[in-house]
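Researcher: Re-running this chain for the archive, since the previous output was lost when a drive failed. Same request as before.
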Amino acid sequence: MAHRLHELSDEDRKDLRKVKRVIEIFRNLDQRMPSSYMDAFLAVATDPGKGPTAYAKDLNMVQPIAARVLLEIGPKARSRDEPLALVDRQNAPDSLRDLQYFLTPKGRKVMNDMLKALRD
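Model: Regenerated structure tokens:
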């Protein structure tokens, strides 16, 4: 059976290399980082200040799973020795029960590295 080749333009190749560089930035943080962690980081980076329920909806996850993923990329890691510390949570100003998530300085550096990789 003959292999079917797909043709990519130089621009397509360039764009795919950029995507690869972004993934490598995540892999440099954790070689086995699940894509759900990457999705959660990008959700907080693009729309900061929401709580786990809102992010769960954005990520198409149930709230307990989204809350666990946010903790894993944030201040409390259950499955690693050191937390990734890419996001942090704080109480919402109008409610002691509600949490909001924001990028940490480390998370902002990772975001800026990704943006640079996409612009190069």
